[in-house]
Structure to design on (594 residues):
């Protein structure tokens, strides 16, 4: 008999009171009504916990770092015990052959019934040799485990979109998970890293309801990724008033004006930072005086500069933006018009003279 | 082709024709005004004016700039829909920038003639009731599709602000943003679109003034009165 979540939690020393508090918090975090706290508690008490295999491809482990810092200390304990992290090569105790054996054991025991969480992505060039796990290219491990899993969670921007290793010119052809695995449901939880509470909430939702939360067209959970940083930014009144930081350390920066002009990507970034914030709700980049860099958006490394509002355009050989390119085009056309007008005037004068 | 043959071919049997019905003319000038407002406010949205000091509650400058942009965008969008409707119920000149027969062999020949006219290779342009084939080509491919692109990407960006569930988000943002990959690229392309329209307007205004002076038909006054006058009506001997 597989243990239920509740049994695992109790075994971990979590009191029933703490357990129920956790259920209420989770219901609130997921945007569910108060009555769902009871449903979550019921599910936790009766359902066997679903094992999760957590694979690491090309990445920096910032997703794991974020995950283990989930704000409510209680949630951290609960999630870590809830997720029977059967395999997570960066934080598991086992190593080497023993560690790799766990993958096969899980596949055998829970074939088609476990969740595959992927942090990072597989590089496809050079036969995947740029990322080797246990002596084999990561892409092979990923495909093998994905064949047997129930569903996939793409943690972070690496797994969701490619992130830094897929930035131009992407020498290893690092490829997001959904472009390698096509036959399994995939939920994307982008961010570099994603917010800890978002990660734990997604896991809780999936384990509680045994299905994905509602996703948008890009496969992200709507409850965390349907609004932009900008929509809930506490500096928004300065934006509407036209009060901007012109350069870092100017008077506007000291007064906490809007960071739009110094390249804040809040208006184009879908994430929950301005509501949930980071590190137990302490702060988030904009609150710390630096613009959002748009880390949860597709290809954000190539949408720089992070310190200018208009995106750099690389296609024209020199660094430019839409205004440089468009302005140049307009100037060329303007010069052309002037020249054409001059020739027209000469022609007309000639004909009048005839 | 000698100039006398050319002239004979260009002879008109009437001094003027009615070309542009009032909705077409109204649409034209509303567009002119709307595009001016959109380009100026759009530029400021990309590169905001200098910071205002004082309390944020004292100002709403960027809010007004964005409001003007959205309002003008709505007017252009609604105007375009109306104009599309009018292309069905209006006269044949109301239709030509939306639908023209590019398979008609003479179309390309006549277009080429206009190109040569602008390259100073022929002495006379041909006369048309409405647009000449080159003008139709540019109007259709640069202006009509350009403005469609701006309306679609513009309302997609607008829908990001009004949020999921709003009509703009449902109709545009929900598919345009994923199509481009993310919001930033939609912004950049919308910005490029502005420069495309600006380049179009520069050429459009120049050519209209030039044709008004150098060709033998009225251009600018036609978009006010609706009538196209042929200046050489009296000077050309009537053949038919």
């Amino acid at each position: 008999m597989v243990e239920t979540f509740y049994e695992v939690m109790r075994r971990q020393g979590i009191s029933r009171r703490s357990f129920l508090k956790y259920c209420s918090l989770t219901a609130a975090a997921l945007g569910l009504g108060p009555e769902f706290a009871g449903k979550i508690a019921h599910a936790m008490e009766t359902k066997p916990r679903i094992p999760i295999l957590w694979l690491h491809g090309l990445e920096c482990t910032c997703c794991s770092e974020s995950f283990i810092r989930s704000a409510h200390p209680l949630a951290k304990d609960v999630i870590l015990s809830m997720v029977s992290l059967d395999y997570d090569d960066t934080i598991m105790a086992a190593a080497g052959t023993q560690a790799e054996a766990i993958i096969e054991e899980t596949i055998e025991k829970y074939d088609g019934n476990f969740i595959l969480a992927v942090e990072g992505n597989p590089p496809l060039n050079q036969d995947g040799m740029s990322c080797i796990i246990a002596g084999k290219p990561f892409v092979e491990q990923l495909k093998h485990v994905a064949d047997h899993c129930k569903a996939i969670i793409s943690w972070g921007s690496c797994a969701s979109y490619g992130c830094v290793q897929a930035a131009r010119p992407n020498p290893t052809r690092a490829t997001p998970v959904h472009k390698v695995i096509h036959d399994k449901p995939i939920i994307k939880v982008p961010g570099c890293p994603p917010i800890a509470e978002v990660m734990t909430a997604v896991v809780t939702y999936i384990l509680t309801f045994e299905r994905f939360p509602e996703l948008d067209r890009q496969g992200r959970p709507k409850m965390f990724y349907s609004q932009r940083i900008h929509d809930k930014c506490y500096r928004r009144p300065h934006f509407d008033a036209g009060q901007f930081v012109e350069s870092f350390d100017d008077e506007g920066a000291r007064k906490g004006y809007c960071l739009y002009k110094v390249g804040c990507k809040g208006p184009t970034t879908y994430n929950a930072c301005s509501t949930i914030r980071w590190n137990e709700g302490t702060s988030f980049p904009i609150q710390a005086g630096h613009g959002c860099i748009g880390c949860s958006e597709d290809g954000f490394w190539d949408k720089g500069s992070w310190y200018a509002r208009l995106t750099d355009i690389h296609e024209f050989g020199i660094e430019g933006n839409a205004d440089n390119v468009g302005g140049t085009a307009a100037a060329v056309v303007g010069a052309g018009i002037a020249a054409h007008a001059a020739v027209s005037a000469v022609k007309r004068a000639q004909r009048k003279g005839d | 082709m000698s100039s006398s043959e050319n002239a004979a071919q260009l002879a008109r049997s009437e001094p003027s024709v009615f070309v542009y019905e009032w909705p077409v003319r109204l649409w034209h000038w509303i567009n002119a005004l709307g595009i001016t407002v959109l380009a100026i406010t759009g530029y400021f949205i990309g590169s905001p004016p200098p910071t205002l000091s004082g309390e944020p509650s004292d100002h709403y400058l960027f809010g007004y700039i964005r409001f003007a942009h959205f309002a003008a965008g709505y007017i252009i969008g609604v105007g375009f829909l109306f104009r599309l409707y009018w292309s069905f119920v209006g006269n044949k000149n109301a239709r030509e920038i939306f639908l023209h027969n590019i398979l008609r062999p003479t179309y390309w020949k006549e277009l080429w003639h206009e190109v040569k006219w602008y390259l100073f290779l022929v002495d006379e342009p041909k006369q048309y009731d409405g647009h000449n084939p080159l003008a139709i080509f540019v109007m259709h491919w640069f202006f009509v599709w350009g403005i469609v692109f701006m309306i679609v990407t513009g309302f997609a960006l607008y829908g990001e602000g009004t949020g999921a569930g709003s009509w703009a988000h449902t109709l545009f943002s929900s598919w345009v943003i994923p199509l481009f990959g993310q919001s930033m690229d939609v912004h950049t392309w919308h910005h490029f679109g502005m420069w495309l329209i600006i380049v179009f307007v520069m050429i459009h205004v120049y050519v209209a003034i030039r044709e008004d002076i150098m060709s033998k038909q009225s251009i600018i006054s036609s978009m006010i009165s609706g009538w196209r006058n042929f200046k050489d009506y009296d000077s050309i001997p009537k053949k038919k």
Confidence is low (pLDDT under 50) at residues 1-9 of chain B.
